[in-house]
Write a structure and sequence with these properties.
Length: 225
């Protein structure tokens, strides 16, 4: 009996990990809403760290259902934002959630993967992603591509839950690469960035399967060399 329970639990965690990597279909839309609840605080802190200015050209990689684009415009009216995500389901949800910003020309949504982006060299002043780098199987390819589309001196902000926090969540055994500050520092330095700082984010508790979890997060900031 215990063996069956373990087996089904493993299946459930694997399915959850797959959905977090690339949300799809009706379940994917529910996962999108769940992420809004769990990750809004990370958006607020990352936006604060980025110190956006009205003239910034900004790219978000892996925006989920795009619920928080409005927070960017509230931080810096006049900002020009591009969003990139490889999930068809999330692209549709983000378009639905941001019709006005898209029609007014301040938001552009594109489908694609961060290791092969449909953007010209030196396009952006700042690029950020929240809860995305765990899914990069070959991170150097993504970092090189981010380096290509960032302007010289541009900054890349990667917000993550720390390795220790991720290890508390059983689904992260399946296909997640977890980083601590030093590991990320080393990786970006090998890929045309200078590591600048890690901003600690003290999150309120998040809920997983009805249980509260105390988790720690970092906004990792690197500058294109
Ligand atoms: C765990 S969700 C995080 C969503 C949102 N940023 C948040 O923190 O709530 C990961 C998102 O990144 C997207 N994603 C993952 N890897 C990607 C890649 N290589 N290129 C583009 N999008 C990616 C997924 O489709 C999904 O929307």
């Amino acid at each position: 009996m215990a063996m069956f329970k373990r087996f089904f639990q493993t299946l459930k965690f694997k399915a959850m990990a797959r959905q977090l990597r690339k949300p799809g279909g009706t379940v994917g839309n529910k996962v999108g809403l769940m992420m809004n609840k769990a990750n809004e605080f990370l958006y607020d802190c990352t936006i604060n760290t980025m110190q956006l200015t009205c003239n910034d050209k900004l790219l978000e990689i892996g925006f989920g259902n795009g619920k928080f684009f409005d927070k960017l415009f509230a931080a810096a009216p006049g900002l020009h934002v591009t969003g990139l995500d490889f999930s068809h389901t999330m692209i549709n949800a983000a378009k639905e959630n941001n019709q006005l910003s898209i029609n007014e020309g301040r938001l552009m949504i594109a489908q694609g993967s961060s290791d092969q982006m449909p953007f010209a060299d030196n396009s952006f002043d700042k690029i950020f992603c929240i809860n995305v780098i765990y899914f990069w199987d070959e991170p150097h390819l993504h970092l090189q591509e981010i380096g290509r589309v960032l302007k010289p001196g541009g900054r890349f902000f990667a917000t993550i839950r720390t390795k220790e926090s991720m290890e508390l969540m059983p689904f992260t055994k399946y296909g997640f690469t977890k980083y601590n500050e030093n590991e990320w520092n080393e990786l970006v330095e090998q890929n045309q960035f200078s590591f600048e700082k890690a901003v600690q984010i003290n999150e309120p508790e998040v809920e997983f399967e009805g249980k509260p979890f105390r988790v720690w997060s970092l906004c990792l900031v690197a500058e294109k060399k």
